[in-house]
Specification:
This protein has six helices and six strands, in the order ααβαβαββαβαβ. It is α+β, with helices and mostly antiparallel strands and about 230 residues long. A six-stranded antiparallel sheet has the order 3-4-2-5-1-6.
């Protein structure tokens, strides 16, 4: 009796499973996807693209291809103005910024500061007696009462003068010192309009140290120095 019920139960179960399978829809064949974007398109989910994958030159890209530069250093404001006038014809944005440069002014030859003005005057008289006419007594500052005997652009000229004064045999310490000062330098920042060529060599004066450097683009309003 138990065996009969077991056989009947298995038959009923098989009939149920066959009927359930018969009413299920056939599976849809999904083509093989080569990347994540293709899988998302197949499944109906909008594809996501990274910023670096976007076409920057197309209307739908993040932004059109941009090229931004800074040009400098330019030694004077008037020279910067002249270059600015030329750049305005072919750039999108134009602004400027100012930096400070330490400029060498030459080599100073001098006698060390004396303890009093009277001692400096006595040293000057001895220089004059030996044929030295190019001198100047410093009136104040950290080198007050020093006696200047020349300022030279070239080091070799300054060394020659130093040796000449030392050769007089007056016994005073003679110094040679590089002179420096701070000067303003100007830079023009601009964005190129499309593929417009820029003849930078024609914009700056001969002998200028100005150079064009590519920099990250920024959304800045154009600003110019007062005339």
């Amino acid at each position: 009796m138990l065996l009969r019920f077991t056989v009947i139960g298995l038959v009923v179960l098989n009939v149920f499973l066959w009927g359930w399978a018969a009413i299920q829809p056939e599976p849809v064949a999904v083509p093989e996807a080569k990347d994540v974007a293709q899988v998302m398109q197949i499944s109906g989910v909008p594809a996501i693209r990274l910023a670096r994958e976007a076409d920057l030159t197309s209307p739908g890209g993040l932004q059109a291809s941009r090229q931004c530069y800074t040009l400098g250093p330019i030694e004077s404001r008037s020279a910067m103005r002249a270059v600015q006038d030329e750049l305005e014809r072919s750039v999108v944005q134009l602004s400027w910024h100012e930096t400070t440069a330490v400029v060498e002014q030459g080599y100073w030859v001098y006698l060390e500061p004396f303890s009093s003005r009277a001692q400096a005057a006595e040293a000057v008289q001895q220089l004059v007696d030996r044929g030295i006419s190019d001198y100047y007594v410093m009136p104040n500052g950290p080198n007050a009462n020093a006696v200047s005997v020349g300022l030279y652009e070239q080091r070799v000229q300054a060394e020659t003068r130093k040796s000449e004064i030392e050769g007089l045999g007056l016994g005073w310490p003679v110094r040679m010192e590089m002179q420096r000062k701070d000067e303003s330098r100007y830079w023009l920042d601009f964005e190129v309009r499309g593929d417009a060529p820029l003849e930078i060599d024609q914009l700056v004066a001969d002998g200028s140290q100005a150079r064009q450097l590519e920099v990250p683009c920024a959304e800045n309003e154009a600003s110019f120095p007062p005339t």
